[in-house]
Amino acid sequence: MTFSAKTRKQTIAQLQSTPLDLLIIGGGITGAGVAIQAAASGIKTGLIEMQDFAEGTSSRSTKLVHGGIRYLKTFDVGVVSDTVKERAVVQGIAPHIPRPFPMLMPIYDEPEATYDMFAVKIAMDLYDRLAGVEGTQYANYTIDKSEVLQREPGLKADHLLGGGVYLDFVNNDARLVIENIKEADELGGLMASRVEAVKVLHDAQGRAVGMLAKDVLSGDEFEIHAKLIINTTGPWVDKLRARDEKLKADPMLRPTKGVHLVIDSSKLSVPQPTYFDSGVHDGRMIFVVPREGKTYFGTTDTDFTGDYKHPTVTQADVDYLLAALNNRYPDAHVTLNDIEASWVGLRPLIAANGSSDYNGGGAGTGKVSAASFDQLIKTVNAYEAGDSTRSDVETAISKLKTAHAEGTLKPSQVSRGSALDTESDGMLTLAGGKITDYRKMAAGAIALIIKLLAADGRQFKAVDSKKLQVSGGHFDPTNVTETLNFYTRIAQDAGLPEADATDLANRFGSNTSRVVSYADAGTAPGLSLKETISLRYSVNEELTLTPVDYLLRRTNAMLFHATDLAALHDPVINEMARLLHWDEATKAALTQQLDATIAETQLQGLKEEQA
Fold first, then answer.
1. What per-residue string of b and e applies to 434-470 under the rule 16 or more CB within 10 Å gives b?
2. Is the pLDDT of residue 119 over 60?
3. Residue 359 above 50 pLDDT?
4. 544 Cβ neighbours under 8 A, 6+ residues apart
5. 250, burial (CB in 10 Å: exposed 0-12, middle 13-18, buried 19+)
6. Which CATH architecture has domain 479-610?
7. Region of 299 on the Ramachandran plot (φ > 0 left; ψ -120 to 50 alpha; else beta)
8. Which fold does the domain 256-343 belong to in CATH?
9. What distance in Å separates the CA atoms of residue 392 and residue 305, rounded to the nearest whole number?
10. Cα–Cα dist 170/163, whole Å
11. What value does the mean pLDDT take over residues 227-231?
């Protein structure tokens, strides 16, 4: 398999000359999920993304396959039910990417706290029932104050009541996207990055039948024709709809900005992901997550109206997160100068706070009535006491009645439901949702797409997407540790030290054998064997076109290995220049882009202002 700059040119030629069944606009996790399912179902599929795959939002999440336990505070049960069940599905179809890692939620006696010790146990029990992990090693439990502080002695002890521990999963968001994209390409889909959707094309009846597109690299414009178009552009959903001259639709989204900051674990070490109220009674919650010798924390969750392509971390964002972190870990004394890296992304929230009905749209409000809430609590209490059955609890959940949504909600309160709409000209729009739910969102879209294509005389049967494994994930998901150990040994046999071999196996999964095949050509000047073969594989088989693509999204080097960037900088640029035949002007421009991205990620501008 090759998926490279060379095949990109061939793909663009095919997009121009091939009448498609489906054209997907947007190469984040939502578009990638639709693409793999469509291609696997035999639908002639094309996908264009104006930036690198996952560049806009899907590489900028909290990097968890998160169940959204805080939504149980408002009893948005539909969203939580979908997401916790989907975690297991995603682990099955991408077994080398999400990994279970229980979350600690310390509980403080504070005004407007999300949970107290009673409520968190109720929420976690419901959470486990929805996830189907009752009675397993991942079942929730509560711990008292002393045990919380034994686990995390740096936590603030004042007003600490105890804590809850429940199942969550760590994730590599950008890798999940590229593995879906690669599999869609392997299945015959036409996947092209850095191709912008310029204008929706219509037939004489005003129906959307294609897209005027622009190759961002060459500047060439061309037409792509398709029976159906689906808008999966995340925060850009409304911006693409605005480029459709046949539509006069109200905005669907309320984008919010989330910021994450990275420090070395020597500054603050946590043994497991930790999740707590911000401490300033604003309804926000903060994650603190250990990863690769670092600790990262976020998020800010504020409304955003700026440049969608280039959201930035502001001093106010840093001040907020440092205040929250230092409040909970009072001896850490983390400052701006301790921040090694950062990232910022937008969440494509549905403006109306509308849907806990995935792909249905508008069915729920994310709130429940007081009577429904009280009845559920009574039933759960009875269940805990042995006076009612699981069926009684499930019945109480099914009878939850929604109350009217609040007219004005804080960004952190807006539901993460998704909506699938058919526009007046036939273009489909799939918006909202979370990374955790991408497969389920895509499955709902594929069902509608197949129905619409059948009306046009094209017959397809949807693939079972719960068993459709992504590139790198073609192995038994119940045997992950042993399988990745096997791929580690393959990499070791190619000459890699054990730690490097383990890293490659965990990153590339069942593609590890393909990666190590690049070792036959020897090492690139200035790079280890691991970095050499990882880079060559990514350029040749992951459509990696720039140093930023590689160091930020194909790997986590820019985020979690900032101290290694100086050593990687020139060797990565030089090897990519050789592989991609850059002239000096191209090499200089991409070097400048890399340097600017590193400076921004490391918050050099804010640090200079403070100096």
1. bbbbbbbbbbbbbebbbebbeeeebebebbebeebbb
2. yes
3. no
4. 535, 538, 550, 554, 576
5. exposed
6. Orthogonal Bundle (1.10)
7. beta
8. D-Amino Acid Oxidase; Chain A, domain 2 (3.30.9)
9. 45
10. 20
11. 98
Other CB atoms within 10 Å distance of the CB of residue 520:
8
- Alpha-carbon span 309 to 586, nearest angstrom: 22
The predicted model gives 219-224 an average pLDDT of 98
Half-sphere exposure of 41 (CA within 13 A, CB side): 27
Which residues, 6+ apart, have CB-to-CB distance to 130 below 8 Å? Answer: 77, 80, 81, 84, 85
Question: Hey, where are the domains in the chain?
Answer: 5-58+174-253+416-467, 256-343, 479-610
DSSP assigned state of 605: H
The DSSP secondary structure of 44-77, one letter per residue, reads: -EEEEESSSTTTTTTTSS-SEE---GGGGTTT-H
Strands (E) across 29-184 are located at: 45-49, 64-65, 99-100, 103-108, 141-144, 160-166, 169-170
Going by the DSSP 8-state scheme, the letter that residue 253 receives in this structure is B
Rounded CA separation 330/106 (Å)? 15
- Beta strand segments in 265-411, E: 274-277, 285-291, 294-298, 302-303, 341-347
Of 411, 25, 10, the residue nearest 34 (C-alpha): 25
282 in helix, strand or coil? Answer: coil
DSSP structure class, residue 603: T
> pTM here?
0.90
pLDDT tens-digit series, residues 23-76 = 999 999 999 999 999 999 999 999 999 999 999 999 999 999 877 787 776 667
The position carrying tokens 């310390």 is 106
What DSSP state is assigned to residue 350?
B
Q: How far apart are CA 302 and CA 284, in angstroms?
A: 10
Residue 116 CA to residue 106 CA, distance in Å, equals: 10
Instruction: Tell me which of 136 and 526 has the higher pLDDT.
Output: 526
pLDDT at 399: 62
Residue 401 has pLDDT above 60, yes or no: no
| Residue 4 contacts residue 26 (beta carbons within 8 Å) | no
Task: Please give the residue that has the higher pLDDT: either 9 or 399.
Answer: 9
Contact between residue 373 and residue 75 where contact means Cβ atoms under 8 Å apart: yes
Q: DSSP class of residue 401?
A: -
Tokens of 213: 């597109």
Tell me: pLDDT of 408 over 80. no
Round to whole Å and give the CA distance between 169 and 167: 7
Residues 133, 367, 320, 347: is their CA dihedral positive or negative?
positive
Q: Taking all residues of the chain, what is their mean pLDDT, rounded to a whole number? A: 90
- Find out whether 207 and 425 touch, Cβ atoms under 8 Å: yes
pLDDT, tens digit (0-9, with 9 covering 90-100), for 270-327? 999 999 999 888 888 999 999 999 999 998 888 888 888 899 999 999 999 999 999 9
The CATH class that applies to domain 5-58+174-253+416-467 reads alpha beta
